[in-house]
Amino acid sequence: MRMSGAPAHPAARPTDAERVRSVLAAAHSMTVVTDGLRTEVRHLDGTDPMGRLHLHPAEPGGDAELRPAVRLEFTDVAPTPVRDRVRARVTLLGRLLTPYAHDPDESADSTCVEFGQAVLETADGFSYVGLDELETARPDPLAPYEAGMLTHLLDDHADLVTLLLRLVQPLPAAAVVRALPVAMDRYGITLRLEERRGHHDVRLPFPSPLDDVEQSGAQIQALFSAARRRSHRNTLPA
Predict the structure, then answer these.
(1) pLDDT by residue, tens only, the chain of 238 residues
(2) Torsion of CA 73, 78, 81, 86, to 10 degrees
(3) SS3 of residue 206 by DSSP
């Protein structure tokens, strides 16, 4: 079990709080569980739900137990056809301070929630993010655009995906039969190397972290240039 905080490799990947914010920023749907009902909300359209949910710190004592518990569930799915496409699950736990309308046509502009905790589940395990961390973290600048960028790379430039394999150290084993881009964030691109049995991910860091999506073109091209300078070749299908 991991607790939130500094990433395993400093400056190499988002923190847990940033990961949660990025999942929320890119979400197109969520499941709301309260009053014994599950409501599927499918019209987020990539609008960060934190703009519609006002999260408040929990107050000790009082009538907290009388407020309806609420659970907000988000699933982060890879946009490319990789194995095990679910990359992460995010759950926000709390209690309602204002009523939640289960009928989207009757929903208010916003819902106030007394925040309990955010739970991030990934292949590495579970981590827990507090309200202060969540409010100070910012979504990854590529989060709203990542799906389109990865599908464009795979559909229109599959040969460049194979080219990126030159940057993988150590070299991919002969058992690898396919390589696909599975994620992209401000720190780099992640490739999923699929073998006949199982798979594993490798991260290819950008020369420097991005501060804005406009910087992505130059950083991606820098990876391609670095790959072209590598002498070894790889014939894996993209």
Answers:
(1) 444 443 334 447 899 999 999 999 999 889 999 988 998 888 676 566 776 778 899 877 666 667 899 999 999 999 999 999 999 999 999 999 888 776 655 555 678 999 999 999 999 999 999 999 999 999 999 999 999 999 999 999 999 999 999 999 877 767 788 999 999 999 999 999 998 888 989 999 999 999 999 999 999 999 999 999 986 555 554 4
(2) -40
(3) coil
Give the CA count within 13 Å in the CB-facing half-sphere of 208. Answer: 4
Q: Kindly state the helix (H) or strand (E) to which residue 127 belongs, with its residue range.
A: strand 125-129
Q: Locate 136 and state its tokens.
A: 């100070």
Going along the chain from its start, the domains and CATH numbers come out as 16-136 (2.30.110), 146-229 (3.20.180.10)
In angstroms, the CA 228 to CA 19 distance is 31
Contact 225, 206 (CB under 8 A): no
Please state, in angstroms and as integers, the Cα–Cα distance from residue 16 to each residue in 12, 35, 73, 76, 224, following that order: 13, 29, 16, 14, 28
Cα 222 from Cα 224, distance rounded (Å): 5
